[in-house]
Amino acid sequence: MEGKPAVRKAKATEGKSAIRIATENDFVEVGKLIYSLFPEARPLHSEKDVYFVAEEKGSFCGFVHVRLLRSSLELQGLGVLPAFRDRGLGKALVSHALKWAEKTHPHLSVHLKVKPTNASAISLYLKEGFVVGQDDGDAFKLVRAKPN
Fold this sequence. Notes:
The chain is an alpha+beta fold. It has a domain at 18-107: Aminopeptidase, CATH 3.40.630.30. The protein contains three helices and seven strands, in the order βαβββαβαββ. It has a seven-stranded mixed sheet with strand order 1-2-3-4-5-7-6, with helices on both faces. The longest helix is centred in the middle third of the chain and has 16 residues, at 89-104. It is globular and about 40 Å long. The relative contact order is 0.15.
């Protein structure tokens, strides 16, 4: 439209956020981030758990948690601090985790559960190649097939 400035959302890669695998030394801060977003959460911490974190100016602003199960990978949590939302950071975290999964565990599918009321998360997951596999009333189970 004429006279209206062009506005676009910044992508996570355009900001100063960097995404990486959290190390053992990061776990206390990762836990604080998770509790700040999900006070009822109990973060898992074992050799089966991999956390990817988005970091900006030395502080964590988002995470995604992947858990290795016997025959699949489960995306168990995704969160971005409110001040960092609407910048594509959640999508970047999920994409990063899925690329890692394809590289390190190419024979495994990835699944997750999401509340039916979480429309923005469902939209993100569908765009990342997940399909609704089951609806148990409390949550949708979404599945992303193994890459060919």
